[in-house]
Specification:
Elements lengths: L26 H16 L4 E3 L9 E4 L17 E10 L4 E6 L7 E8 L1 E7 L5 E7 H12 L16 E3 H4 L10
Antiparallel strand pairs: 1-2, 2-3, 3-6, 4-5, 5-8, 6-7
Bound molecules: nickel (II) ion (NI).
The site of nickel (II) ion has 5 residues, from loops.
């Protein structure tokens, strides 16, 4: 079990266009995915992208089969490994909701995302992944895949009156200060 350092906003490595994975089912890739899940779970994150630990590859993990204390009311998103993803909006409808990011600790912002999307890609064995999702699941996959194109959620905020410190916005939440 290896918990890796999570890069924070301001680090130029978070702004790169990540490279596609070309070799699947390698020891190196399995180790990366294991480290991503360990790091995500240690930080109670909803997801984590390889660039957030300084790895320049199109690899994201998200979801859990248990309730996330940072998002106690969120519906469960299945534990997912997604490589070389492509997201296609299925309608122009967008919804705004609060997001946080482990690379932007202590803050939350209201972010518009497509409500319904299809995503495709591969798992760590090179098997295709294809899902049609909505709501929180759609939000999480859009947030994580944004990390692969150098986008952090504050870059998607339109109304900056709805961006602030978690402890101020949600004093009732028993969230860790560095979420
Ligand atoms: Ni993030």
């Amino acid at each position: 079990m290896t918990i890796r350092e999570i890069l924070k906003m301001g680090d130029a490595r978070l702004l790169r266009l990540a490279q596609p994975v070309t070799e699947f089912d390698t020891d190196e890739l399995h180790l990366l995915i294991s480290d991503l899940f360990d790091t995500m779970q240690a930080a109670s994150g909803a997801g984590l992208a390889a660039p957030q630990i300084g790895i320049d590859l199109q690899v994201v993990v998200f979801g859990t089969n248990e309730i996330n204390p940072r998002y106690p009311d969120a519906p469960l998103v299945p534990r997912t490994v997604l490589l070389n993803p492509v997201i296609t909006p299925l309608s122009p409808d967008q919804q705004s909701d609060w997001e946080g990011c482990l690379s932007v600790p202590g803050l939350r912002g209201m972010v518009p995302r497509f409500s319904h999307v299809r995503y495709t890609g591969f798992d760590q064995y090179g098997d295709p992944v294809e899902r049609t999702v909505e709501g929180f699941h759609a939000r999480v996959v859009q947030h994580e895949c944004d990390h692969l194109i150098g986008k952090l959620y504050p870059m998607r905020i339109r109304d900056f009156t709805q961006f602030g410190y978690t402890e101020v916005l949600f004093p009732e939440l028993d969230a860790p200060a560095d979420d």
